[in-house]
Amino acid sequence: MENFEFVSPTHFVFGRAAEEQIGQKLAAAGATKALVHFGGKSAKASGLLDRVCAALDAAGIAYVELGGVRPNPEITLVRHGVDLCKRENVDWIVAVGGGSVIDSAKAIANGACIEEDVWTLFESKATGHPTLPIAVVLTIPAAGSEASKNVVISNDALGRKTGYANNDHRPKFAFMNPELTFTLPPFQTAAGITDMYAHLLERFFDDVEAVPVTDNLNLSLMKTVRAEAPRVLADPENYDARANIMWAGMLCHQGLAGVGRHEDWATHALEHELSALNPTITHGAGLAVLFPAWMEYVCGENPARFAYYGAQVFGLAPTGDVMADAFSAIDETRSFFASLGMPTALAELGICEEDIERMIPTLQANKGAIFGSFKKLSMDDARAIYRRAL
Ligand code: NZQ
Ligand code: ZN
């Protein structure tokens, strides 16, 4: 088991009507003025935003609002948020939404506490400065940003999408009411499930030998996500299925499912280039295409690990040919994503052969010349994986 540090400061309030507690909890934590940050339309349309604002009003917490966060959130709105927080002396950020809103909130929380332009943090990956505390009202289980140390932001002018990790911007509160996810369109539900499952794969496949305490937790989450996925898709208002998926989404990415391992994250790096090139590409959909392609490309490094994964998660019986077993596990993974309605080829996302060379320079700028852990990948390896996924 590798050495690790693990910090998880998030106070979770989970269940029906969880969001109603936001006023009293934030007041007790000393909040006096919040930035209420939200996305395009869902939080307004459902009435959730009004309920959150009413809860803040009732607790005597003043607030300013900033909506309009798009999926694959962009730095321009972050800069507006930073200016607003500085001008209005905001002392808490309330993110109402999913990974995009939460990541935009994290970037604002950092930018509001430094003199320099907030994008400099995405270049330097600097930590150690103060950040504003964040509370999340989660509306889509997917990215796991409600408890993660990561933030990912796009910069359209530079054609970049990149992130970094900072334990200090992990949210202080996450209000998680599964009923808020009943309104998710099937595609977003499925993309979210793909993303959380991918967060487990990124942690399971690396260059560290078995770490049973971590691996068994990870495998248990994989099995749970697989079992609950068809239930939420068939019955979107099934509270228990939604609740299991929502809590799993957090556990998949808050960190415990990878402690003691190096973790890989090559496929996420490859995917972020897709959404940098075309911000309308949904993160989970890109991962659904790229993960099986990455798996096929790298599994020769340690086919036994893939065979073990196939046996544990899909119940595949060993055939005596470990490479064949590894490929069966990869086929099952691809079929699982396809069964959710996810794409299976980059062409379905509008990505073609010529796009590959457009993505390589920014990939290298973000990750360096060599990246990944299960197999160390060069830019030529990245090209080969993209080609395999076309
Ligand atoms: O903008 P609105 O109208 O709210 O619509 C959103 C959006 O279009 C909609 N939605 C959210 N909750 C809804 C709803 N629609 C109906 N009912 C609801 N209850 O869903 C769409 C997607 O939302 P988004 O926040 O983009 O989804 P997700 O949580 O998948 O976040 C994706 C972003 O997170 C980043 C991704 O790269 C991407 O930018 N990630 C962040 C991570 C982190 N910070 O730890 C890790 C991940 O690997 C990921 O990279
Ligand atoms: Zn992800």
Task: Walk me through the structure.
The protein is of the alpha/beta class. It has 15 helices and eight strands. It has helices at 22-28, 42-45, 48-58, 75-88, 99-111, 119-124, 186-204, 212-234, 239-251, 266-277, 283-298, 303-314, 322-339, 353-367, 379-389, and strands at 11-14, 33-38, 62-66, 92-97, 134-138, 150-155, 160-165, 173-176. A hairpin with a 4-residue loop joins strand 6 and strand 7.
Set out the fold topology.
Blueprint (H helix, E strand, L loop, with lengths): L10 E4 L7 H7 L4 E6 L3 H4 L2 H11 L3 E5 L8 H14 L3 E6 L1 H13 L7 H6 L9 E5 L11 E6 L4 E6 L7 E4 L9 H19 L7 H23 L4 H13 L14 H12 L5 H16 L4 H12 L7 H18 L13 H15 L11 H11 L1
Parallel strand pairs: 1-8, 2-3, 2-4, 4-5, 5-8
Antiparallel strand pairs: 6-7
The structure holds 5,6-dihydroxy-NADP (NZQ) and zinc ion.
The site of 5,6-dihydroxy-NADP has 33 residues, from helix 2, helix 5, strand 6 and helix 7.
Which key features would you list for this structure?
390 residues; alpha/beta; six-stranded parallel beta sheet; two-stranded antiparallel sheet; 15 helices; 11% strand; binds 5,6-dihydroxy-NADP; binds zinc ion
